[in-house]
Amino acid sequence: PFVVTENCIKCKYTDCVEVCPVDCFHEGPNFLVIDPDECIDCTLCEPECPVNAIYPEDDVPAGQEGFIALNAELAKDWPVISVRKDPPADAADWEGKSGKLPLLER
Ligand code: SF4
Ligand code: F3S
């Protein structure tokens, strides 16, 4: 499956959700995750993310391997999102910032 990684936190542009044919994105307060049991590896979402937060599970950036389990865990708790919405007003300020994991809200 594909995995949403750290750069989505506090950016949450949601362009990714519009293209998913199986509606497997789930939404939290300031982050999205992909349900690994539903993702069919179609690859469509990866190029849609303006901050390149989406990777195939086998290609997650070094140090971000924990996001694989985090996507699986949070997808069980969070509701499905399939329609794009406006990003947070300060999304651009958080693009590419490292160390955002502690800011993830559940
Ligand atoms: Fe959805 Fe395809 Fe992205 Fe998987 S790879 S989350 S099925 S758009
Ligand atoms: Fe997050 Fe990128 Fe989607 S910022 S909400 S993975 S478009």
Question: How is this structure best summarized?
Answer:
The protein has 106 residues and is α+β, with helices and mostly antiparallel strands.
SSE diagram, text form:
Elements: E1 2-4, H1 15-19, E2 25-27, E3 32-34, E4 54-56, H2 66-77
The structure holds iron/sulfur cluster (SF4) and FE3-S4 cluster.
Please characterize this protein's 3D structure.
The chain has 106 residues and is of the alpha+beta class. Helices cover 16% and strands 11% of the residues. It contains two helices and four strands. The protein has helices at 15-19, 66-77; strands spanning 2-4, 25-27, 32-34, 54-56. The chain has a two-stranded antiparallel ribbon with strand order 1-4. A two-stranded antiparallel sheet has the order 2-3. Strand 2 (25-27) and strand 3 (32-34) form a beta hairpin. It is globular, with a radius of gyration of 12 Å. 32% of the residues are buried. The model has no long low-confidence stretch (mean pLDDT 98). The structure holds iron/sulfur cluster and FE3-S4 cluster. FE3-S4 cluster (F3S) binds next to helix 1.
Catalogue the ligands. iron/sulfur cluster, FE3-S4 cluster
Q: What's the helix count? A: 2
Rough outline: globular
* Major pleated sheet: 2 strands, antiparallel
Q: How many angstroms does the end-to-end distance come to?
A: 22 Å
Q: Residue ranges: pLDDT <50 for 5 or more in a row?
A: none
Which strand order does the major sheet show?
Answer: 1-4
Mean pLDDT rating: 98
Class derived from helix and strand content = alpha+beta
Helix and strand succession?
Answer: EHEEEH
Our estimate of the beta-strand percent is 5-15%
Helicity, as a percent range: 10-25%
Secondary structure: number of strands? 4
Question: Over the alpha carbons, how many angstroms does the gyration radius reach?
Answer: 12 Å
